[in-house]
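Margin note from the TA: students keep mixing up input and output lines. Inputs are the sequences; the output is the structure of the whole complex. Example:
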Amino acid sequence: MTKLTTICAVLAFHLAAPAAMAATAQEIMSLYDKQSRADAEQVKLTMRLVNPQGKVRQRTINYQTKTNEQGKQNSLLRFVEPADVRGTALLTLEHAQDDDDRWLYLPAMRKVRRIAATEDNENFMGSDFAYEDIDFEELANNSYTLLKSEMVAGTDTWVIQATPTPQSRDKSGYSKRVLWIRKDNYAVVQVDYYDKKDELFKKRQATGLAEVDQSGKWRPKRQEMLNTKTGHKTEIVYEDYRIGGQISDDVFSQRTLADNR
Amino acid sequence: MHRFAQFVVRHPWWVLLAVLLVTVAMLAGASKLTMRTDFDSELPASDPIVQTDNRFKAVFGDKDVIMLAVESRDVFSASTLNKIARLSEDLKQVDGVLEDEVTSLATVNSIKGNAEGVDVGRFMRKVPTDAAGLAALRRAAHADINIHGKLVAKDDTLTLVSANLAKGYDQAKAYAQVQALIKQYSGPEKIYAAGDPIATQEASLGIQGDLGKLMPLALLLVVVSFIITFRSVRGVVVPLGLTVLSIIWTLGFMGFAGLPMTMVSSTLPIIMIVTASSYGIHVVHRYYEALVETKDQKRAIELAIGSVGGLVIITGITSALGSIGLIAFKVVSIREFGVITSVAVLLSTAISLTFVPATLALFRAPKRLLSMEPKLSVLDRAIAAMVGFSFHHRIAVLVLTAVLMGVAAVGVTQIKVGNDFINTFPAGHPLRVAFEKMNDKLGGARYINVLADSGKAEGVTDPQFMSALYGFQQEAAKDSRVGYSVSAADIVAQMNKVMNEDDPKALRVPDDRDLISQFILLYSMSGDPGDFADRLDYDQQRAKIQVLLKTSDQEDHKAIYHALKADLESRLGPNQKAEFGGEVMFWSAVVDYIVEGKIDNILWTLPLVMLASLVVFRSVLGGIISVVPIAISTLLTFGVMGFTGIRLEMGTAIITSISVGIGVDFAIHFIGQVRQLRGRSANLGEATTQAGLSSGKAILFHVACNVLAFSAFMFSGFVPIQYFGWLVSLTLVTTYFATVIVLPALLSLLRPGFVDTGLAPQRPGPATAPAADPDFIDTPTLPLCPIPASN
């Protein structure tokens, strides 16, 4: 190849690059964060824990969440299945400064009990998802780098590396994450999680993305989190998404926890 | 044999070239040699315990564990707690460690009651900074049945930091990283390491240490004995070359055959040193004698090979037969060892008949040949007197022998069988110390796993079933040899207590099935997916109960197993069943196989060796008489083991086969000598005494050389191998005395015909110096005759 053709090729590459490539990683992540947040949201989810031997433990949960006055989330999880735990409920009230308040209702005891708060790097409901995986993105606690663009399952994505800032490194269970974010709607389709040894540790995939209730918010029909080190995985199937609409504040109160069966 | 000898002497370079080519090939094989230090594969796959363990693994998975025991004056001090928190964090960096499966005071989940409700989650979120906080943490730990006496010693001086490992980790790397952590975090706290990668790496370090330390030592010892015997360069170089080649060929064979180095087979190089040096001594010594006689280098070698070659082949075959009997064992390492030793002995035989004469042919005949002066030393007189005495006082000797055998038989009934693998390591070994600390302070380091099957999906949450498990655990805890046990049932009971305002009466399994399910849900929600998966299967049909034992005595282990099994079965319903597995059960099975294998092995080996002697002497009585000394010494050795408390186990189980292989040669030499001397003397008593004078002394030297080389084992890094060294030496010494004391008495009593039949051709030579007869089977006057210096 002559010098001239090389220059031409380089120029052609730059001209052909999508305009979106100009977006910074920080901007992409802001838009991703915006699309993932909703003031009120509810969904029925079926969680399947699959152990490396292929055995499955399945639970169905109704999940409701609403943004509170502090700009944080109140949420209620109520078990629908299996039958012997039906009605078991967990209420979480997040606070901006203090520890979260959590209450538990066990129908077999007919008692509401306050339970201790959790940490970000603990697992969510005994699944392969950590609390930090299902929470909203903490934009200030990470630095982002745009690695490349890549096609995933027929759609174009940005590949972004997220590294915890030095201040938040201890709170996170990861040394870094790599996220694949769709260019058309800023929804995440894949995340690789690296442990503190900087080795691939978990792989998350979201499929069946669709816009819910014309809200501009895209949600997956199914998510899977695979622990690549143990071979354990968690699958979640979502049904009856509802975004926006009215959820009474009463839903998130200790008083109604026990009788809201 | 003579033809073969002639060929070797005439074409030494061709023979050596062939030996060299084989050696190069064997070196390539040796480079493929692997090491096996895990004990999981010791039992055949068809064994019921192996199958139970496989079912456990299928249901609950199988992860290796690293355990660090941190010893401190007070675990609940800010400095120690901070250290534990940092150590738990740094342990995540160790190769293979699953970062969310590290368990310590800093990571463990607990169920605590508090003023408003219940705290299910991290036991210690932050290390308390003030005295009040530390005191509260201590109180909480004492109140938590899953921490007090389990994760932290009841006296608060020891606590565990443990981690599960992902498959395919690098054992040597993980071990080195753990050792670095121990170094970094020790002082004033002491840290002890245990767990799979630590134990297997210590075992492989022990094997490497043995190979690196004992082999040179044993070689040095045999070189010293060569120097004393032959006082010449060739007298050292030739048998030493034979020994080294035997080791290389054996390791090469192991590499090609895919047989790994194990704790048992790590003894091979020394056994090769002993065997090969014996062959070397025979051939070289015979050559010297022939040289003195013929003054002709080539003729001397031909004569030596011609006369001793047959003997070397016979003893090679009998030794190989002795070893192959080990395949009677179902324990894999021992079976493999039997095969390797048999092949090794035969390889060694081949080398001593090729390399040795070919090398000797390259040396020039020594200029100065001293003619042998048959002089009787004090030792000669003593042996002759001993042999003569027993020949003439046969009844007294045989009665005394019978009494001694009776005593030994009593000892045999006292033999303790089997050993906990931790006792393989000598007292004071870091791994053994770690185990002892955990046994003393944390309720045990050994465990039995119980797989309790409720018979149907979701059956575990049935209050009857879960109460049965809880009751079983309560009953097991009454045995002082049991540390504690863990299962889903004690978590449910603890939860019931906490949810009922910490009422001690509520520490039990509730009667409500839904409540049990909800407790399990609550607990599993607060942990990692792996947390509860270790105690309940995903269908909630089977539960695992792990019972930790404080004792390392295998007879206790068996007794506990039978008691546990009977108790649990009495509690379970019609469709419910329990299976027992885990490492304690595994080692118990190994012991059963060792006992069964040992008996089979002796029943096989003695007849095989007897058959070989029968062929040599062409007489049934000859076959029987030749195994008498080894039978006596085997019984004596087991008697000594019984009285001294040395256990029959992996290491000591191979003794008989090795000592029978070597010991039977003594009888063959001795009887062969008597037979030849009968050709000159009509008097059996005279022939026997003469045989004692010549052959008896040769055997004594042989024994002394072997015991010297085997004494290297006493410096082994493994206790069973140390015992092996002592016991093989003891067996050889007793075989010697049985040969020169009991055999003469037996010959005197029975006057068997077969000793008269194999008359050697008459040759000129002094009747008092049978050594001058080149066709003698043995190499009499071996040790004390002045050997001519070769240069």
